Amino acid sequence: MKNLKTLIKLRKHSINEILKRISLLHQHKVVLEERLMKLVWEMSNETEKFGGTEYGFVLDSYLKGAREQKTIYIKGVITTESKIQQSKFMLHDEFGEMKKLEIALQNREKQMELDETMKEAKSIDDMSLMRRVRQST
Question: Which of 14, 27, 97, 104 is most exposed, with the fewest beta carbons within 10 Å of its own?
Fold first, then answer.
């Protein structure tokens, strides 16, 4: 029974670690999305300002770099979302395993209670039988 309790504690620890990881991934995704939105806004703003001016050649090189950065942010968001989904699957599996262990522990405790009750009943029956034997002699 002690082993089951230890295994349950390990599973709970693992679940907490996965939850922390998911939280960190969500935070990272939010940061990437904010950067992406800021970059898109800056690209739009710069295009409006310098679109038809003599600085168009500088704008083209800026937009080229900005598009590459935008692609990196988008890939980062997609990768982070994929990792979040993987972590959620791991969380589901860990939680299922922990529940199995908890059920096994409950069953073992119930069986121990039943065994104890049976021992008490047998002891009471034996004492009753001994009294009857004494009374009949």
Answer: 27
